[in-house]
């Protein structure tokens, strides 16, 4: 039987060749195969939606430079990146206020240098977006992108990542071994000589202020500057964008860093171009505006448009939000012609716009819960996930959100995440002096924890979006709540109002399960030390299967009863000592009741001795029940 012909496909000017089922990426005459990429993904576990190529609808920020705008600042950054290393810095920090377009410019630069084959990495931080708001996988993500962009680096990265303990080491150690040293080694070997003649390579880091790990951010900056100080001729540059935050400013205000204030590049003509084009496109789509213009002439008038541009004062996020507010298709009580004069009377700034927009849905059922949930969740949820988490209907979430599209991105389907147009909305909602009646109290974390606990009741599906969220982030809500001072912990106008109430509620839901109080008391009194189902069963003189049948709403167990992995569920296990004491008080009530009606071979004596309470030391002893001899 003759072999089938091997199919080879090469696209003109392409960087990818398909040979049969194999895909090969070509960079500067070298290659990295798709199988090598798969291996690196498995080893490095990069964040695949953190780069400039992510789906911005699903993974914000969803911002890009409007055609014909930002020409001056882009030209400035490109000139810096193209200049010789002998006369310029390795790092440029582009800073500016909320909404002035930093992310859009970062995206434009990344795309431009990708086309030039000089972009070796990009990372777009975004607050409350899981790993994209942390430094945990920052180094491995950049290392994967570096290896994909420069195949000569790939074997060096692969060798480094297999070093014992590296992935558990500090951020600084990971960046050194996975990014800086492989890049430097490839340069020394001469592999990059031809490309180096085109200019230095570039890494784009956007929204560094959105990263929660402030100490790691400082360590990253300090180590990066130290590396370039010792290696001034390494052909690598970093473009970093952020707001002016103290923990960043104190470290980036350095002679090794070029500072660019975006405010100095905010052109009035850019805003004018943006607004003029947006209104022209809306006139084509909106028959109401077209009919108005036929009868009354131009709209908006040049005078109104100029006033609006002055009112915006250089903020693209404010410009986009105001435009969405003016042409809002969900407001059937007024027309764009009615809303424009009211918009011109708004106080400059986003807060007034946020208040005006939020007030449209304020009267609707579940509004406070939906808005507070959006403000405090640790990862964006789709509409169906928000509904599941709050225990309400999907249409009730849609009803509230549909009026807020000027400030919140509403996806086209219920399974895509709902995101804020800008993270400043979260700051607004969580700052009482700014938001007033729309304020989300930090004590609301307790209610979200309670809602997480209900997702694991009997009969609930374990694989829903909200259930998976509760497993990943439930413990973070109790952590945020327990960090609050007592004066900020409540009450909130819904159940539960205290941790005692929450713990009792969770335990009471399951008290009718056979041997529940005995099992849960034993596991809780073991503290943070996990114990196997077999061990618990032997201690209580009950069958192993009776232990593992205890409901998962309270604790988790391995599928293998011999594995040492029974422990309190994540949101119950993340205690301070005081939290543990409150839970033990609840458990003691159940244990005492069960001992008063002791069943031979099941009940057990619990001896709880709290030693040196102020020093946070708890001593617990557990004694198996011994049935007295028959008389």
Account of the protein in words:
Pfam families: NPHP3_N. Keywords: Repeat. It comes from Candolleomyces aberdarensis. Residues 88-243 form the Nephrocystin 3-like N-terminal domain. This protein is 46% helix and 11% strand. The protein is of the alpha/beta class and 631 residues long. The protein folds into four domains: 46-265, Rossmann fold; 268-348, no CATH class; 367-488; 499-623. The strands form five sheets. It has a five-stranded parallel sheet with strand order 6-7-8-5-9. α5 runs antiparallel to α6 (171-188) and α23 runs parallel beside α28 (577-596). Mean pLDDT is 77; it is low at 1-31, 551-587 and 589-628.
Q: How is the topology of this model organized?
A:
Blueprint: E1 8-10, E2 16-19, E3 22-27, E4 30-33, H1 34-44, H2 71-82, E5 91-95, H3 102-115, E6 119-124, H4 138-149, H5 154-161, H6 171-188, H7 193-196, E7 201-206, H8 214-230, E8 236-242, H9 246-252, E9 257-261, H10 268-285, H11 287-296, H12 302-312, H13 316-326, H14 336-344, H15 350-358, H16 367-376, H17 383-390, H18 394-401, E10 408-409, E11 419-420, H19 424-429, H20 432-435, H21 444-454, H22 465-482, H23 499-508, H24 516-525, H25 533-540, H26 544-548, E12 555-556, E13 567-568, H27 570-573, H28 577-596, E14 605-611, E15 617-623
Parallel strand pairs: 5-8, 5-9, 6-7, 7-8
Antiparallel strand pairs: 1-2, 2-3, 3-4, 10-11, 12-13, 14-15
Helix pairs in contact: 1-4, 4-6, 5-6, 6-8, 8-9, 10-12, 10-13, 12-14, 17-18, 17-22, 21-22, 23-28, 24-28
């Amino acid at each position: 039987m003759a072999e089938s012909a091997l199919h080879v496909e090469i696209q003109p000017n392409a960087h990818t060749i398909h040979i049969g089922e194999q895909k090969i990426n070509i960079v500067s005459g070298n290659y990295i195969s798709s199988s090598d990429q798969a291996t690196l993904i498995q080893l490095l576990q990069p964040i695949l939606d953190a780069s400039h190529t992510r789906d911005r609808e699903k993974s914000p920020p969803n911002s890009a430079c409007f055609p014909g705008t930002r020409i001056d600042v882009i030209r400035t950054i490109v000139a810096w990146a193209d200049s010789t290393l002998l006369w310029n810095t390795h790092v440029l920090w582009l800073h500016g206020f909320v909404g002035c377009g930093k992310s859009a410019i970062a995206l434009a630069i990344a795309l431009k240098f990708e086309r030039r084959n000089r972009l070796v990495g990009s990372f777009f931080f975004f607050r409350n977006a899981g790993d994209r708001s942390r430094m945990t996988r920052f180094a491995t993500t950049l290392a994967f992108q570096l290896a994909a962009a420069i195949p000569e680096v790939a074997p060096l990265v692969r060798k480094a990542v297999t070093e014992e303990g590296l992935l558990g080491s500090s951020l600084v150690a990971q960046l050194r071994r996975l990014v800086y040293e492989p890049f430097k080694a490839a340069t020394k070997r001469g592999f990059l000589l031809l490309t180096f003649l085109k200019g230095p390579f570039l890494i784009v880091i956007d929204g560094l202020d959105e990263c929660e790990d402030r100490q790691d951010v400082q360590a990253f900056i300090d180590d990066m500057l130290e590396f370039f100080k010792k290696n001034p001729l390494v052909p690598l540059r970093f473009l970093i964008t952020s707001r002016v935050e103290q923990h960043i400013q104190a470290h980036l205000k350095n002679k090794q860093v070029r500072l660019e204030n975006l405010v100095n590049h905010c052109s009035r003509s850019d805003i004018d171009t943006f607004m003029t084009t947006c209104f022209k496109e809306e006139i084509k789509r909106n028959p109401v505006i077209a009919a108005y213009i036929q009868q009354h002439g131009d709209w908006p008038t040049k005078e109104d448009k100029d006033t609006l541009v002055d009112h915006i004062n250089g903020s693209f996020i404010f410009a986009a939000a105001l435009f969405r507010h003016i042409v809002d298709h969900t407001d059937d009580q007024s027309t764009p012609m009615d809303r424009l004069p009211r918009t011109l009377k708004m106080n400059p700034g986003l807060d007034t716009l946020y208040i005006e927009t939020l007030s449209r849905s304020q009267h609707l059922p579940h509004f406070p819960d939906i808005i507070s949930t959006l403000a405090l969740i640790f990862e964006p949820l789709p509409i169906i996930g928000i509904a599941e988490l709050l225990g309400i209907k999907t249409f009730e979430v849609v009803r509230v959100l549909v009026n807020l599209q000027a400030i919140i991105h509403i996806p086209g389907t219920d399974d895509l995440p709902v995101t804020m147009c800008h993270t400043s909305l979260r700051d607004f909602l969580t700052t009482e002096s700014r938001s007033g009646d729309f304020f989300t109290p930090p004590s609301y974390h307790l209610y979200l924890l309670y809602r997480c606990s209900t997702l694991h009741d009997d009969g609930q599906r374990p694989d829903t979006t909200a259930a998976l969220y509760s497993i990943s982030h439930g413990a973070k809500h109790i952590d945020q709540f327990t960090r609050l001072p007592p004066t900020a912990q409540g009450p909130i106008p819904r159940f539960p109002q205290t941790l005692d109430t929450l713990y009792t509620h969770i335990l009471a839901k399951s008290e009718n399960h056979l041997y529940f109080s005995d099992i849960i008391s034993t596991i809780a009194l073991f503290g943070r030390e996990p114990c196997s189902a077999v061990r618990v069963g032997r201690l209580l003189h009950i069958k192993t299967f009776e232990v593992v049948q205890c409901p998962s709403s309270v604790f988790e167990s391995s599928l293998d009863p011999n594995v040492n992995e029974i422990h309190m569920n994540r949101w119950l296990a993340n205690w301070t000592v005081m939290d543990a004491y409150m839970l033990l008080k609840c458990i003691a009530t159940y244990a005492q009741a069960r001992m008063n009606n002791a069943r031979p071979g099941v009940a057990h004596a619990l001896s709880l001795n709290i030693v040196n309470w102020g020093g946070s030391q708890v001593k617990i002893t557990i004694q198996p029940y011994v049935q007295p001899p028959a008389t």
